[in-house]
Amino acid sequence: MASKRFIRETKVYVAAVLLIFTQATAAQAVPDFTGVWTATSPRGGGGEPMPALTARAQADLATFDPLTDPVIRCVPPGFPRSGSIIYPLQIVQTDTLILFLYETFGMIRRIYMDGRTMPDYWPPSLMGFSVGRFEGDELVIETTNHAPGVLVSRGVFQYGDVSVVERYRLVDEGRGLAGDVYITAPETFEGTWLRQYTWELDPDGMIFESICDPEDSRFIGTE
Asked: What is the pLDDT of residues 134-165, one digit of tens each?
């Protein structure tokens, strides 16, 4: 009896050790997106064509004046418009928070990885509120609570109802980054817009300071 009990307890112990080892291995298997990434895909296109515009968006597009674009006044373009920027992106990754640091306008996105939900008091913002999770080797980010603004530089607006799902994965043995960005904005588009981007890791890359001064705008003095 003692021998059988010993065998049974040994099996339980081994199973517990294997479970701990498996969990530790799974935790270590989380991909690391840390680094400075430079764009390798055209930012004017990529992915599915833009969905048909709603009547409201068409009307705003028809009357859009580029000189009224907030970026002329050094207002950051926000997200998801920031996805079209060709300048470097730095990703800083921790267990509970991932930061996207954009060289342009010094923009920062905070992606919460600790399972939190957006507080009721959180105001709409240019970058929205982002939460993330890992699904296998993909980083999945969901962003909501955007402030209304220009969605596409040529005059397509979003009206505060936009939501975005991003799926990022490492490619080329970790030297490349690929992202699928699904943009849903019912007041702007008749359907979901898929944008696809790629980046290349720059091991020695750095993010430079970016200062916007409206007095230096090339549009000053334009009739």
From this structure: 999 999 999 999 999 999 988 999 999 999 99
Token pair, residue 37, equals 């990434």
Structure tokens at 223: 């009739």
> Measured between alpha carbons, how far is 73 from 183 in angstroms, rounded to an integer?
26
Amino acid at 131: V
Peptide bond into 80 cis (omega under 30): yes
CATH class of residue range 32-206: mainly beta
Structure tokens at 160: 């505060």
Task: Using alpha carbons, select from 163, 151, 127 the residue that is nearest to residue 57.
Answer: 151
Residue 175 · residue 32 · CB < 8 Å: no
∠ CA 206-104-219, rounded to 5°: 140
Where does the chain show beta strands of DSSP type E?
A: 35-39, 89-93, 97-102, 108-112, 129-135, 138-144, 149-152, 156-158, 163-171, 176-184, 193-201
Q: Please give the Cα distance from 190 to 173 (Å, whole number).
A: 37
The Cα–Cα gap between 112 and 143 comes to 10
pLDDT band at 45 (very low <50, low <70, confident <90, very high): low
Sorted by sequence, the CB contacts under 8 Å of residue 92 that are 6+ apart come out as: 34, 98, 99, 101
Structural contact between residues 137 and 31, judged by C-beta atoms closer than 8 angstroms: yes
**Residue-range domain boundaries for the chain:** 1-30, 32-206
What is the pLDDT, as a whole number, of residue 5? 60
**Start-to-end Cα distance in the chain:** 97
CA distance 223 to 203: 45
